[in-house]
């Protein structure tokens, strides 16, 4: 099988190429940056470049994107060019090449302001049924790209699966307040409760989406670690999140206290992956209980794949106010 992976120098693109190559597929990696996993350097905004490398492709994993951290360094038009026009170019050439399935990596950031409950309201139980309300050009451009995927399935019958991934990057948080109040390890461990996924689980979700996509046609799924929370926890999560975590994962306190770690006092949203687990038969391994088990064993919290890929960063330059000085999510 010939497989095209865009964004092959990025976290997820590299992870997919690393995973696919040993399976004896012909893997073509596209990126604007050179890397050991990039076959050809070029922009997906260049329709001719996309056309050349789409020839004979059976399956597309479209991971290339401008990310939220680029909001401080890139103009809105660049987000439209890369995230919207680039996706349009790939979809159009996928039709010409008779591609069997197109898997688009989107983001939970498309939900935007839909994730902000009023001060007295319960936490938001985030499923695919919640209508996105993007709050910046990044979210708008990704939501538009999702709509293009839906359109190409409707108009051309191209099987398109959209995966809204939660956080899997290892870099420091873009929220200055979070960076100042929690260690990197503490913060990311907390996030496995409601808004983080390990890159190995994300890769497995993409592979399953490609396998089942032709029979599904078009669908959108949230890809995040399985939360231990239940809907009846949502009120208390806003006012006393540590008590809820203590009830659902009792062993966390001993491991946290011994390290001087803290739980968030309040959690305002919970990403729910039930749709992907059911439709794709996806079985994510890395969740908050796994984190606690690794802490007990004094072991690394990351998957072997995450350790192998490591940190890449998003900017060529050093920025004055932290690694990603954008407005808090």
Description of the molecule:
This protein is of the alpha/beta class. Helix content is 40%, strand content 13%. The protein contains 13 helices and nine strands. It has helices at residues 11-20, 47-54, 76-96, 137-156, 176-181, 184-191, 199-216, 234-239, 241-248, 252-257, 274-280, 288-296, 304-309, and strands spanning 2-6, 26-31, 40-41, 59-62, 101-107, 124-126, 160-165, 218-223, 269-271. A seven-stranded parallel beta sheet has the order 3-2-1-4-5-7-8, with helices on both faces. Strands 6-9 form a two-stranded parallel ribbon. Strand 1, helix 1 (11-20) and strand 2 (26-31) form a beta-alpha-beta unit. Helix 1 (11-20) crosses helix 7 (199-216), helix 2 runs parallel beside helix 3 (76-96) and helix 3 runs parallel beside helix 4. The longest helix is centred in the N-terminal third of the chain and has 21 residues, at 76-96.
């Amino acid at each position: 099988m010939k497989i095209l992976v865009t964004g092959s120098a990025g976290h997820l693109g590299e992870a997919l190429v690393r995973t696919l190559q040993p399976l004896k597929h012909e893997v073509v990696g596209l990126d604007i940056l050179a890397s050991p996993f990039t076959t050809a350097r070029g922009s997906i905004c260049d329709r001719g470049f996309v056309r050349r490398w789409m020839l004979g492709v059976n399956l597309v994993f479209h991971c290339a994107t401008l990310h939220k951290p680029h909001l401080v360094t890139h103009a809105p038009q660049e987000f439209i060019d890369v995230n919207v026009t680039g996706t349009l170019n790939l979809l159009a050439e996928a039709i010409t090449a008779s591609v069997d399935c197109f898997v688009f990596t989107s983001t939970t950031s498309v939900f935007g302001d839909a994730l902000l409950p009023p001060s007295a309201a319960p936490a938001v139980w985030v499923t695919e049924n919640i209508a996105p309300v993007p709050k910046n050009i990044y979210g708008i451009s990704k939501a538009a790209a999702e709509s293009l995927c839906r359109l190409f399935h409707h108009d051309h019958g191209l099987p398109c699966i959209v995966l809204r991934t939660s956080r899997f990057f290892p870099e420091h948080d873009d929220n200055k307040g979070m960076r100042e109040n929690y260690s990197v390890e503490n913060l990311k461990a907390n996030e496995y409760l409601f808004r983080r996924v390990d890159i190995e689980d994300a890769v497995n979700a993409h592979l399953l989406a490609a396998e089942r996509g032709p029979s599904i046609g078009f669908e959108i799924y949230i890809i995040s670690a399985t939360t231990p929370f239940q809907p009846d926890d949502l009120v208390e999560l806003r006012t006393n999140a540590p008590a809820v975590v203590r009830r659902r994962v009792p062993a966390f306190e001993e491991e946290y206290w011994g390290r001087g770690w803290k739980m968030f006092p309040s959690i305002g949203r919970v990403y729910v992956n039930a749709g992907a687990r059911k439709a794709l038969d996806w079985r994510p391994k890395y969740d908050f209980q796994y984190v606690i088990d690794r802490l007990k064993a004094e072991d690394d919290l990351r998957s072997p794949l995450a350790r192998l890929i490591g940190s890449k960063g998003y900017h060529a330059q050093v920025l004055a106010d932290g690694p990603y000085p954008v407005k808090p999510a």
